[in-house]
Give the backbone structure.
Amino acid sequence: MSSRDAAPSLELRGREFRWGSRTFIMGILNATPDSFSGDGLAGDLDAAVALARRMEADGADWLDIGGESSRPSAQELEPAEEARRVVPVIEAVRAATQLPISVDTCHAAVARAGIRAGADAINDIWGLRGDADMARTARETGAVVIAMHNQRGRGFRDVVGDIRAGFLATLAICAREGIPRERVILDPGFGFGWTPGQNLEMLRRLAELRSPGLPLLVGTSRKSTIGHVLGGAPVDQRLEGTAATVALSIANGADIVRVHDVAEMVSVARMSDAIVGRGPMVPPAVSALVALGSNLGDRLGNLRAVVRMLAERGTEVTGKSSVWESSPVPEDQPSYLNAVICVETRLGPAELLARLKEIERALGRRPGRRWGPRPADLDVLFYGREAVDLPELQVPHPRILERGFVLAPLAEVLTGELPLLGMTATEALAAVGVAGLSRYSNL
């Protein structure tokens, strides 16, 4: 987890949804008599309230309430009948919980009534591309929009390409209507117009659908593709299959999972988050400073490759110095290029060093004579304000105050006092001098 840490957040009902911090759980409440999953509440307000309270106690972050079945064979309701079903449930649930609520509807009139009844968001399976009045309703009510790409009735070219095209069409509507992007959540539409194989491809390629600042919701719970894969398993035997799809959706970047079985999927999400590097089990990010050197091969290309490879491996580079050239020590080798970068990492000091050594090897460094030429030489200079004393790593680097070729770039990225050393890099550089040093280029 790196760039996702800086993703925007959404605040609803006093809750902050900081995308990338962990997976959020949306519980499903069906105010219908004909839900495909067999959990329709059919106007039983007491049952709806009891279910909402249980979902909240089980760890749900959000509730999604719908009054019309969206399964392929379901008969479309008149908006007035849909509202008659869903509005009393929203009102009753809103009185019982402060969880955010979305009204699951593709009719603008129902969406407007649901917002008046206490909902905070509109979950539209047609992504604002069905009812022509839905975007205006979202703008005028200020509702958050959960916009799904629905493949039903559309020509097929490519799973990811078709979903991207749908997302772009929805975002164009939002821009035209003045709906802020930070109040839009995208759903690729698992189960809506796709074959089982295409649904599985969607999950495999989910990471390709990420868009900066836009959270991704995935709803696989109990759907027919799971039954198909599991040899015709009925709805009430799809819990484990749902758990697998939820875990892999999280691994591929889902921010919200929409589920029936909240307690079980909360456990799946927490475990998945811990594995992929999100959630409360993940240590806080630490700012570390890393020295980069190269005097073999494409020296500048090697330094730039280090920055790229760190980002590819999930370590965010937050600051870069200029590149400085220095005379070699010993003198029987090419001149060095040097730089310092600041990284944000959740790796421990030894793990960070291991990652740097892996990158050195990937760039062609091999065992050789001490202080000999090398395509990449990477050192941890500082790790937060922590002193580290391990056989393979000492932080602060024990010779940092003697090395002008480190202090010169370091002074560009850290103007304050050096952690644990009681002086600035500029002060230390003045003491050792800049003989043999020259600024070479940008990193």
